[in-house]
Amino acid sequence: MARGVAxxxxxxxxxxxxxxxxxxxxxxxxxxxxxxxxxxxVECKSSRADYQSDQKWQGYLEWCDRFxxxxxLEFPTELLPxxxxxxxxxxxxxxxxxMPDEQKLAAARRKxxxxxxxxDAAWRLQRLRDPKPGRDGELLQPTLTD
Length: 146
What we know:
The protein is an alpha/beta fold. It has four helices and six strands, in the order H-E-E-E-H-H-E-E-E-H. The protein has helices at residues 2-11, 48-52, 57-60, 107-129; strands at 15-20, 28-33, 39-44, 66-71, 85-89, 94-98. It has a six-stranded mixed beta sheet, with helices on both faces. The model has no long low-confidence stretch (mean pLDDT 91).
């Protein structure tokens, strides 16, 4: 499902990263940066139980301009809060069904988050190209705190 969401975001001009950690204790399924610097977070849910067991999603709201759920056609969408966005997706593509209101990030948080996104994406790309560990035997990766 995340791949279908990422493909759809790319069609909208967004660059996205899957399994991104905006802050300690949080991990979003997909985060995208749009052509105007807007930041969207998309949480993928495969079932009612998956949604009902998610205790952290409200913590993601302070890390994006717009928040979306991505679900398949069988998902009971009436469970999802009406003020959040809705994307119907599968492994191949997605369709944006409901656009949430924009809640603009503060400029300082946007700058820090955009920097962390760029660093994480670059580290992932570098690991694909050169998977050997650093000098001390571990892959070195920067950590940023807010």
